């Protein structure tokens, strides 16, 4: 995989405000929330990379790929896309479980004891295609934008369910200047 480090992977810094956490009061990096790229957006992006296929052909292939992946995953088959990773169906069971005695008595019913089916993604981790978390970090051009803070719009409200917050992001240099002046 080529070492491409552009465009920037934007990071904000956010204060941990969970009083029960050992990291309470410390600041931690958080990815800047960006707009999700749709299938059409991905196809437009791919077509813009000097591809011999137009967006319509790429979209047709990817749309078929998605429907086939869903079909295979629904049958319990993991699906590997070389260079990206493997999609694996996993089971979420109900919390109560079932006893051995109930199974032996014929009371097992998968629909009753399975709460949901999740799709887990395992990134590719082999050689040039390694996009596991630490290797993928090396491909990213990390840049810090600012400090993200949660501003309480209802400071007089004591009921936590009625509190309203807004997210404020201050550019890092400005935040440092504000904190130094305070």
Task: Describe the model.
The chain is built from 6 helices and 7 strands, in the order ββααββααβαββα. The chain has 182 residues and is α+β, with helices and mostly antiparallel strands. Strands 2-1-6-7 form a 4-stranded mixed sheet. The chain has a 3-stranded antiparallel sheet with strand order 3-4-5. β3 (79-81) and β4 form a beta hairpin. α1 packs across α2 (55-74). The N and C termini lie far apart (47 Å). The model has no long low-confidence stretch (mean pLDDT 89).
List the helices and strands and how they pair.
Elements: E1 8-15, E2 27-31, H1 39-47, H2 55-74, E3 79-81, E4 85-93, H3 100-104, H4 110-113, E5 114-123, H5 133-137, E6 141-152, E7 165-171, H6 172-181
Parallel strand pairs: 1-6
Antiparallel strand pairs: 1-2, 3-4, 4-5, 6-7
Helix pairs in contact: 1-2
Tags for this entry?
182 residues; 3-stranded antiparallel beta sheet; 7 strands; 4-stranded mixed beta sheet; 29% helix; alpha+beta
Q: How many beta-strand elements?
A: 7
Give the N-to-C terminal Cα separation: 47 Å
**What's the arrangement of strands in the largest beta sheet?**
2-1-6-7
From the alpha-carbon coordinates, what is the Rg to the nearest angstrom? 23 Å
Helicity range of the residues? 25-40%
Structural class: alpha+beta
How does the overall form come out from the CA principal axes? Answer: extended
Q: Which sequence of SSEs, written as H and E, runs from N to C?
A: EEHHEEHHEHEEH
Low-confidence stretches: none
Major sheet attributes: 4 strands, mixed
Average pLDDT rating = 89
Tally of DSSP helical segments: 6
């Amino acid at each position: 995989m080529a070492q491409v480090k552009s465009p920037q992977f934007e990071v904000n810094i956010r204060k941990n405000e969970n009083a029960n956490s050992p990291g309470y009061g410390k600041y931690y990096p958080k990815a800047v929330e960006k707009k999700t790229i749709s299938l059409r957006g991905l196809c437009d992006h791919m077509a813009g990379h000097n591809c011999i296929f137009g967006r319509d052909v790429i979209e047709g292939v990817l749309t078929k790929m998605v429907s086939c992946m869903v079909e295979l995953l629904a049958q319990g088959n993991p699906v590997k896309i070389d260079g990206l990773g493997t999609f694996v169906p996993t089971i979420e069971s109900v919390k109560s479980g079932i006893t051995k005695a109930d199974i032996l008595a014929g009371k097992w019913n998968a629909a009753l004891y399975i709460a949901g089916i999740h799709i887990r993604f395992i990134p590719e981790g082999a050689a040039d295609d390694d996009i596991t978390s630490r290797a993928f970090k090396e491909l990213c051009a990390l840049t810090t934008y600012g400090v993200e803070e949660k501003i309480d719009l209802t400071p007089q409200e004591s009921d936590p369910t009625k509190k309203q917050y807004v997210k404020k992001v201050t550019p890092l240099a400005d935040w440092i200047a504000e904190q130094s002046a305070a």
